Amino acid sequence: MKTIEELNAIREKAKADMTVREDNAEVIRVVVGMATCGIAAGARPVLTGFIEEVARRKLTNIAVSQTGCIGMCQYEPIVEVIEQGKEKVTYVRMTAERVARIVNDHLVNGNIVTEFTVGAIAK
Amino acid sequence: MRELSLNILDIAQNAVSAAATLVAIDIIEDTEKGEMLVQISDNGKGMTPAQTKKAADPFYTTRITRKVGMGIPLFKMAAEMTGGSFSLISKMNTGTKITALFKTQSVDFPPLGDMGSTVATLIAMNTHMDFKYRHEVDTKEFILHTPDLKQMLGEVPLSDPTVFEWIKEYIIEQTLAIKTEGSDDTPAQDNSNERND
Q: Which residue, among B109, B121, B123, B94, has the nearest Cα to B35 in the 3D structure?
């Protein structure tokens, strides 16, 4: 069973990781739409998928956050990737299965997964 | 929504938008009566009596990106479909309380689902707020209260991925423990050591 005391160990470990993170100026923001439309379409496993994949790969320069309704409810779950100095990339009809590919190809290696973007669908 | 935990996540997001600093989520199950009560209350800005009246109307919304607001209507419908009931009480500058009663024997009763993911997501995405999650099944219960976690974690934010995993797993384990029938030596007690309340 997990106990609240375990958080002490997590604290010690996270403190060590945080000092590493401070050197990383370039943060990539991953924003998941979490309004009713997003949640109903399956945004929660997408959001948790990003958090878990980022943790698993120990990526310190990625911040996962949420937003409300983006206004394209029919394309939910929607994920936006925002990087300083680059155009925003919008992924649509996201699934938990697609998360690992986007983390690997886009967030780590810088190659946008074009087939999952809004541009590939809205034709 | 496929499971109640998704409705709960959605409804709790309203509290976030209402600038609440504390959100309490209570789930109270009475297996003998076949009832589950879900209550989400916040200390946010609340609604006017007119807004409160219209909140369960799908064609009323405060958002500007589209003309419908489905969160509360969907949750209300989910409860009423089981033969249960729904209530919404709100007071300006005080907060909002939403209560839904489900009849668990109904064929339309949706599973509660993954509350671990719902609570971990709410906490990680809103670290500036406090959450109190309580799940009671008959005589057993457990409570997760973010001020306790913050005290243990110090400068480490609740959005830390390891903390996220811990919260999720903790809730899954504790839920299982209170649902286990029989003897009281099942360690279902909450984290009440080291607390000073």
A: B109
What was the pLDDT predicted at B22? Answer: 95
Q: What ipTM does the predicted assembly reach? A: 0.87
Give CA separation, B25 vs A53, A113, B39, B79, B196, in Å.
28, 38, 6, 16, 22
Chain A CB contacts of B17 under 8 Å are 68
**Distance between CA atoms of A73 and A93, rounded to whole angstroms?**
10
Q: Do B70 and A48 touch (CB under 8 A)?
A: no
Does A36 contact B74 at a Cβ distance shorter than 8 Å? yes
Q: Which CATH number does the domain B4-179 belong to among 3.40.50.300, 3.40.50.1110, 3.40.50.620, 3.30.565.10?
A: 3.30.565.10
CA distance to partner chain A, nearest, from residue B54 (Å):
17
* Domains in chain A: ranges and CATH: 26-121 (3.40.30.10)
A32-56 pLDDT, tens digit each: 999 999 999 999 999 999 999 998 9
- Asked if B152 lies within 8 A of A3 by C-beta distance, the reply is no
Counting as low any pLDDT under 50, the low residues of chain B are 183, 185-186, 188-189, 192-197
